[in-house]
Amino acid sequence: MKLQDKISLTLALCSVCILAILIGQRALFTLPEMRQLQQQADWSEVELAAKAIEQQVRDVGRWADDYGCWDDSFNYTLAPNNDYITSNYPIGTFENNALSAILIYNAAGKLVWSSGYDEDEGILVEAGRFLPDGALAGGPFVQSAEQYRRAQQPIVSSGIIDGKLEPLVYAAVSITRSVPDQDFGGTLVMIRRLNQGLIDDMQHFTKIVFHLYTKAEVAADARLTGLAAGRPAGDDDRGVRRQDAGYRWLRDAEGEPAYLMQVQLKAPLYSSRLIDGVTVWVCVLLVLTTVLLRIVLRAVVVNPIEELSRHLRTIRETANYGLRVDSSRGDEIGHLQKESNSLVEYVELQENYLRELNQTLMARAHEDGLTSIANRRHFDTKLELHWRAYRQLRKHIYVMLVDIDSFKAYNDTYGHLQGDDVLRRVAGVLFGHVRVNTDTVARYGGDEFSVILTETNDNGANVTANKLLEAVRNLNIEHAGSPHNGRVTVSIGCAGQVPADEDFSRLIQTADEALYQAKHNGKDQVVFNFAPSSR
Predict the structure, then answer these.
(1) What is the pLDDT of residues 49-75, one digit of tens each?
(2) 494 with 465: CB under 8 angstroms?
(3) 3.30.450.40, 3.30.450.20, 3.40.50.1370, 2.60.120.580: which CATH number matches 45-267?
(4) What H or E segment, with its residue span, contains residue 360?
(5) Whole-structure pTM over 0.90, yes or no?
(6) What 8-state DSSP symbol labels residue 299?
C-alpha cells in the first residue's frame, strides 16, 4: 500500500475515533453539566426576583423600626396629639419612603391614628382604601403587651399580604421608648403597595420579568394548581421550572403560602442535540483533509509541514517566542515559514500587551474606586477561597460587617463630598488595623464595609473588632447628628464558624443579624455572634 494511502487510511480511522470521542464526551459529560448549570441559572433568576420583593419588606421594616423605638412615638400612644402627627407623618414621609399606609395602635390594640397615601393622585387618603377587610381592627398586625414581655425586646413582624387592589408588604414593630424597658406602647405598622409601578421598577433593576398570583388565582387555574400542591414551607422551598417559566411561593410572616411568583426564564443557552454544529464542522474538515493529503506529495508538503508543526508546538508548550524556523526556501513552503515567523513575533507582542492589560483590568475589577480598598466582588471571591480552604482544615473563619452610624444624616448635614471623605478615612483606618497577609478589608456597599479574619480565634476576632471600633472613634470626625459625643462612629456585627458545607451565605447572614442587633442596641458597639453550624 502506498504511503499516501496509509496516511489517508490512518487519518480516516483517527477521524472516526475523534468523532466518537466528541459525541461520547458531549453525551456523557457536556450535556448533563449544561443541564445542571441551566437549572442553577433558572433558580438564580427565580431567587433574584424573590429577593427583590424581600428587599421591599426589609426597607419597610427599617423605616418602621426607626419610628417605633422612639420616645415621641411612645408618648403619642399614651396621649395622642396632632403636633406629633404633623411633624412626623406629613405627606413627604409617605412620598420619600414610598409608603402607602401607616397605622398606630395603642397598647390595648386600639387604632389611634391611620393614614394612607395614593401615589397616583399624590394625596393622603383613608388607609382602608388599600388594606384588606378587618386590617384596621388589628388583623395580622397588632401586638400585645404580653407578647412584648415574653419576648423581652421589641417585636418585629413583616411579610406580604393581600390588599384590596394589589399585594402589600408590611412591617409591624413594637412601640417602645428609645431605651427599651418593660413598658409597651403599642404597635406601629408601615405598609407599601406592590403596585405595577413598583413591580416595573424591580423588573427594570433585576432585568427579570415576573408576575404574582394570589392563592385564589392559583386554585382557579388548572395549570398552576399542581404547583401549589405539596410545597413545604421553609428555606428548602425551592422553585420549579415549567417550560419557559419558573415558580416559587412567597410566604407570609407565619410561613404560609401568600403569593405564587411566576418568573419568565430566559431561553436555554445550549443546544440539546447530540451532534451539534461543531461536531459537523469537525467531520467536514477531517474529510477534506483526507482528500487533500492524497493529492499532496509527502516529500514536498508533509515533511516540511510536520517540521513547522513541531516548531510551533515547541513555541506553544515552552512559550519561547524567540524561536524562529529556517525560511530559506524560495517556494510556498518557504513563504509559509516566513509568515509563521512573523505570526510568532506578532503573537509575542500581543501576549505581552494582553498580559499587561489583564493585570490592569484585574486590579481595577477588584478595587473600590472611591476608597481604593477591595470591592464587593473581591470580598466574595476571597471569602469563597478561604471557605473552601478552611473547610478542609476545619478551622474558624470570621466575617465582620461594619456600618457607619447615621451616615445618611451626616450626608444631609455636611454634603456628599464630605461624606465621601469620611468613607475614605474609615476605609483607611480599617485597613490599617488588620493583618494584611491574612485578613481582607472591602467596601461591602454604600456606607458598609466587610472584613474577613483568618488564622485567629473568638477572642482574637473580638479584640480586632473592638480595635476597629476604637480606631474609628479616634478619628474624631465631627458629626453633629451623632448621639455619641458628636463624632462619627460605627456599628460592627461579627460572626464566625468552622465551614461545614459549601454555602457560606449563612455566615454573612449571621454577621448581618449581629450588625442589626448592634444598631438596635444603640449603635457604636460590637455584637459578636456565631453561625449555628459552628456551635
Answers:
(1) 889 988 998 999 898 988 988 899 999
(2) yes
(3) 3.30.450.20
(4) helix 332-365
(5) no
(6) I
